[in-house]
Amino acid sequence: MRHTLSVMVENEPGVLSRVVGLFSGRGFNIESLNVAPTLEEGVSLMTITTIGDEQIIEQIVKQLRKLVTVIKVVDLTELKAVEREMVIIKINAEDAKRAEILRIVDIFRCKVIDVSIDELTIEVTGDHGKIEALINLLARFGIKEIARTGTVAMKRALQN
Amino acid sequence: MELTGAQIFLECLRKEGVEVVFGYPGGAIIDIYDQLPNYPFKHILVRHEQGAVHSADGYARATGNVGVSLVTSGPGATNAVTGIATAYMDSIPVVIFTGQVPTPLIGNDAFQEVDIVGITRPCTKHNYLVKDINELAYTVRQAFYLARSGRPGPVVVDLPKDLMQAKTEFIWPEDVSLRSYQPNLSPHIRQIKKVAELIANAERPVIYAGGGVVSAGAEEELTWLAKNLNIPVTATLMGLGAFPGNDPLWLGMLGMHGTYAANMAINNADLVLAIGARFDDRVTGKVDTFAAKATLVHIDIDPTSIQKNVAVHVPLVADCKSALSALKDVIEPTLEQNYSEDSHAVWVQQVKQWSEVHPLRYNKGSKFIKPQYVVEKVYEISNGDAIIATEVGQNQMWAAQFYKFKKSKSFLSSGGLGTMGYGLPAAIGAQMAFPDRLVVNIAGDGSIQMNIQELMTAVCNNLPVKIVILNNGYLGMVRQWQELFYKRNYCETCMDAQPDFVKLAEAYGAVGFRVTEEKDVTPVLTEAFALPKVCIIDVRVDPEENVYPMVPAGASLSDMLLV
C-alpha cells in the first residue's frame, strides 16, 4: 500500500543523504520525496511517499525515528490528511486537439503557463488521484515532458 | 584562555575520563599528536588502523566503557571502516576520530582526502564533520553520549586540520540534550505485568539472551529470574557469559552452531523470553518455524529490532536492566504463592535429557589433535577466568561451544559482521584494560594472518596476550560448507602455504610454540599461559574437523546435522 510519511528533520548538511541512504541501504523504495524548510529555523520537513506492506512501513518509520537527526515521523496515511502535488506537463496540441485539451484543463482547474504553435504547457495541483487521472486523460494526446514536485502533505486540523 | 582545536579536543577526552587511545598518526591529525605528550592518557600505537578500532572495540567490550581511536584522513580513515562496521553490527560503544584535510580543501580531492562521513554513514550510529571550532567541544561530548547511551554503537567525528590549529575559548558543555534523540529506557509497567503473568502460566519457558543483556549490565537480574523461576537459559554468541556457562540451567548457545538442547528447547517452548537479542538469521534459521509453539516476548532497547525478523506477541521497548528489574519487582512478592521449587520441573527434566542425549561432543582417540580438545584445555588451564577473544570461523564457534563462560564481558568476538582479523587487536584492547588477567585469542591460521601485524603492538607495549592458533591449513568454515553443500569442491580454501608461526613470533619478539601431539597440549598451554610475554601457540589440529551441530543456512532449527 502507498503511504505518505511526514518527516521533520534537523536542517543540517547530510540529513537528506542519511534519510535516502536508509531507504536504499535497507532495500526500501521511495516513490517521491519532497524537502523544504519550515517556519522553525533549523528544521525542515520532508514528505516521503513509499509503497510497502504494513511490516515494511513499520520498519521504515522506526528506522527513520532511530536517525539522530530526525525529530518526528508521522505516517499520514493513518490520519485524515491533505495531500497535494504540483505537476508541469508539456503536451502535444495541434489545432485540431487544442480545444479538447483546453476543456480538460478547465475541468481539472489547471493553468496554461506556456503556449506554442503545437504545444501547451500546463500546471496542475492536486492529490495523487487527480494527478493520475489527468495524466491518463492527457496521455493520448502525447505528453512530451513532465516535471513533478512529489507529494507534500499535512494532517488536517481538528483531529484527535 | 584560548586553546587550539587540538588542545580542546584532548581536554574533551580528559573530561570524558578516557584512559587509553588506540591510534596511528598522519598528516591530517598531526596537530593532535603534537599535543598528546602533554596529556595523561596512554596512546597505543597500532600497526594498522583496522587494528586501532578493533582494539578500542575489544577494550569497550571487556570494560563496558567507551573505546577511543584516533586515525588520520583518507587511507587512515578508510582502513578504520571494517573496525567501525564490526562495532556497529555488535552495538559496541566506540568513538573514532578521523583527521580531515583543511576545510578550504574539502571537496577538492585534496591529498589524503576522503568523505569519511559519507562512507561511514551506513555503519555508524551517527557521525559528524566538525566545521566550526566553536562546535568542537560540544560535538565530542555528543559523540561520547551517543556512543554509550541507548543502543550503543560507534560514532565517527571528522576533524579538519585547520580547526585543530585554530584557537578559541574552551567551554565544556555540562549537559547534552538532543531533542531528536530520546532513547526509551524504562519499561511500560502494563507490559511487564503481562510478561509476569505469561511466565506464571507457562509450562515450557526458555530465556533467549543476547548482547543487550551484556551492554545493559543486566546479568544479575537475568540470573535471578532464571534461577528463582527455574527457567532454562540459552544465549546468542553475543550473549555468552551473561548467564554462567557452568550453571545447570544453562543450555549452551542456540542457532546455527547451537546445542541440540538449546535448539530443541526453543522449538518446543510455549514461552520464549528474548532479552536484548535481535533474532539474527544465524540464530533463527528458518524464521517461520522458529519457536513456532511459543508466545514470544521481546525486550529490546531498540524499537527497530522489534518485529523486524520475527512477529512477537509482547514487545517491550526498554533497557534490559530496567526491564528485568521491573519484572523482578513484580514477581518477587508473589514468588512463594505462584512458584514452587519444582515449577517447570518436568520441562527442565526434558531439557536436561536433550543435553544428555546429544551433548556437545567430538570424536576422541583420533591420530589428530582435535581443536575442541584444545579449547577445553584452554578452559581448564585458565580455570574459566580468561578473557577469550576469537577470530572468525571454526575457531570462533569451537571457542563459543567449548569454553564455559562464567563471567560476562569475557568473550570478545565479531558476531554480526563476522570480521576475520578481529581477535588479535581486540585481545590487545582487553589486555590493555586488564593487565593482570589472562587474555587468550583463539584463532585460525587463516584469520590470524588478517591482522598479524598487531603482534608488534602487543610486544612493544608488553601486553602478554596468548594466541592459540587452531591450525588446520584450511579456511575451515568455508571448507566445511564446501564439503557439506558444494560437493567437496575445496576451491581456494586450502591454505597449506603458510608462514612458520613460531619463527614469525620470534621475528616480532614474541615467544612461539608448536604443538603437534595431543599429549603436549596441556604442558605447552600451561607454560605459555604462565609466561609474562606475548605467545603464539601453533597447534596443528585435525585438518578436516567440522563444527557440529550445524543447522544449514535457512533450514529450521530442528534440522540439525549432529555428527
Report on the structure:
The complex is a heterodimer of chains A (160) and B (563). With 160 residues, chain A is α+β, with helices and mostly antiparallel strands. Helices cover 31% and strands 42% of the residues of chain A. Chain A is built from four helices and nine strands; from the N terminus they run E-H-E-E-H-E-E-H-E-E-H-E-E. In chain A, strands 5, 6, 7, 8 and 9 form a five-stranded antiparallel beta sheet that branches. Chain A has a four-stranded antiparallel beta sheet with strand order 2-3-1-4, covered by helices on one side. In chain A, strand 2 and strand 3 form a beta hairpin. Chain A is elongated. Helix content of chain B is 37%, strand content 16%. Chain B has 563 residues and is an alpha/beta fold. The longest helix of chain B is centred in the first third of the chain and has 15 residues. A six-stranded parallel beta sheet of chain B has the order 3-2-4-5-7-6, sandwiched between helices. In chain B, helix 9 packs across helix 14. At the A-B interface, helix 1, helix 2 and strand 4 of A face loops of B.
- Outline the biggest β-sheet of chain A: 5 strands, antiparallel
The Cα radius of gyration of chain A reads 18 Å
Distance between the termini of chain B: 70 Å
Oligomer: heterodimer
- List the total number of helices of chain A: 4
Most extensive chain contact? A-B, 21 and 19 residues
* SSE ordering of chain A: EHEEHEEHEEHEE
* Distance, first to last CA of chain A: 24 Å
Strand content of chain A: 35-45%
Low-confidence stretches of chain A: none
What is the mean pLDDT of chain A?
Answer: 94
Tell me the number of helical segments of chain B per DSSP (H or I, 4 or more residues long): 23
**In percent, how helical is the residue content of chain B?**
25-40%
Helix content of chain A: 25-40%
Number of strands of chain A: 9
Q: Would you tell me the structural class of the helices and strands of chain A?
A: alpha+beta
Low-confidence stretches of chain B: none
What is the β-strand count of chain B? 20
What's the rounded overall pLDDT mean of chain B?
96
Strand content of chain B: 15-25%
